[in-house]
Design brief:
eight-stranded mixed β-sheet; binds magnesium ion; binds aspartic acid; alpha/beta; binds adenosine-5'-diphosphate; 20 strands
């Protein structure tokens, strides 16, 4: 049995006309001899609408009930699309996460997929041409509905493709593929024909929301070819794939940004063993992800600790830090939400130096102050003031030659 997985994002399923375009695409692939498994998002704006509504009912909505609420968005999409498909003569049925089941851990609002009952799906495909799966949702071992974090339908699609050994997973969205940077922010952004799993992992982890990072992790782990393309054009899109030697030549392949950043500085904490653990363990136990961390050089037995988190976690993190004051001896705890991250990414950085200094020089030329720096083998990230975001992205994008073509590493 030849299986193809498609995933359609929120803009692609918003309304009858767009769903008809989706149906055309699904029928074309089916006509090539594939059994189709299609993961759908909620119509665009719906998940945000539901989250806003929850906050009208509760100041601090229960996360488990939030998941029950937001999964309704995907349920509406799959039911309506399946009606269309059946009317068009396809043997189709909808499937919610718990009906498959897509089993996750119990980490509500950003659960991880543990298992997908692939034999059951394959058995169903004997009787159906098309299975329409609700993206973003799963069920834990206690029968509780869970969600996979924002953008999680990408992960549903790729995880289904991995579990079913599908030939390809096509991710349909509102842009023509993966670009050198967000095409909606930078006019000169260029579509890439191919990108490596590792580069895509870095782009996604640094904020490029075109693919959720966990979907790329799945793709890399199970070697799933992923093609990102538009529902609204016939452009072949971008293939996300394993690295080959030609790709290693590319020095910088993309610029990512992330506005969902908040910087916290804990001033004058005691400079002794155990203080970092005392601060970060309770934050981790509360399920809050800490991103960049800097500890200053100590003076007079005291030091400053600066780190970044998602803005959504600010209140909870401040409350935790307040409760820790007596233990860590902090004199002052400050926060700043007017910050963002900008990252330069490329596999060529593994073997070539100089990208960091070029990035810092470009920032200096534009008079943009760098607040924090983080690096990995193939990425350099700067935290800057949010008001400089567009300027920084455009400057880096064009200065690294991404508008013209890949920046090649010189021998
Ligand atoms: P969907 O609803 O289809 O899942 P998303 O809004 O989650 O779509 O992701 C697509 C968006 O990702 C694009 O509209 C674009 O603004 C944004 N984006 C950010 N960085 C990139 C990039 N490097 N390449 C393509 N799109 C990007
Ligand atoms: N509807 C969910 C969200 O908006 C999941 C997705 O679209 O991927 O985050
Ligand atoms: Mg998305």
């Amino acid at each position: 049995m030849r299986i193809m997985v498609h995933k359609y994002g929120g803009t692609s399923v918003k309304g009858l006309e767009r769903m008809r375009l989706v149906l055309d695409r699904v029928r074309k692939s089916h006509a090539l001899g594939y059994k189709m498994v299609v993961a759908l998002s909620a119509m665009s704006g719906e998940t945000n609408r539901l989250l806003t509504q929850a906050r009208e009912f509760s100041a601090d909505p229960d996360p488990a009930e939030l998941d029950v609420l937001v999964t309704t968005g995907e349920q509406v999409s799959v039911a309506l699309f399946t009606m269309l498909a059946k009317d068009a003569g396809l043997r189709a049925r909808s499937l919610l996460g718990h009906q498959i089941p897509i089993t996750t851990n119990s980490n509500v609002t950003r659960a991880r997929i543990m298992e997908i009952d692939a034999p059951r799906i394959k058995a169903m495909l004997e009787d159906y041409d098309l299975l329409v799966v609700a993206g973003f949702q799963g069920v834990d071992c206690h029968g509780r509905v869970t969600t996979l974090g924002r953008g999680g339908s990408d992960t549903t699609g790729v995880a289904l493709a991995a579990a079913l050994s599908a030939e390809v997973c096509e991710i349909y969205t509102d842009v023509n593929g993966v670009y050198t940077t967000d095409p909606n922010l930078c006019r000169t952004a260029r579509k890439l024909d191919r990108i490596t799993y590792d580069e895509m992992l870095e782009l996604s982890s640094q904020g490029a929301k075109v693919l959720q990072i966990r979907s790329v992790e799945f793709a890399k782990k199970f070697n799933v070819p992923v093609r990102v393309r538009s529902t609204f054009s016939d452009d072949p899109g971008t293939l996300v794939t394993a690295e080959d030697t030609e790709m290693e030549d590319v020095l910088v392949s993309g610029i990512a940004y992330d506005k969902d950043q908040c910087r916290i500085t804990v001033r004058n904490v005691m400079d002794r063993p155990g203080v970092a653990a005392a601060i970060f363990s309770p934050i981790a136990e509360a399920g809050i992800l800490v991103d960049m961390i800097i500890q200053n050089t100590g003076r007079d037995g005291r030091t400053d600790m600066t780190f970044t988190i998602s803005r959504a976690h600010l209140d909870r993190t401040m409350a935790i830090l307040d409760s820790l004051r007596p233990v860590i001896g902090a004199e002052d705890i400050q926060h700043d939400v007017n910050v963002c991250k900008v990252s330069v990414i490329g596999v060529g950085m593994r073997s070539h130096s100089g990208v960091a200094s070029t990035m810092f020089t470009l920032m200096k030329k534009e008079n943009i102050n760098i607040l924090m720096i983080a690096t990995s083998e193939i990425k350099i990230t700067c935290l800057i003031e949010e008001k400089y975001l567009e300027l920084a992205v455009r400057t880096l994008h064009d200065a690294f030659g991404l508008a013209e073509g890949p920046a090649k590493a010189c021998a």
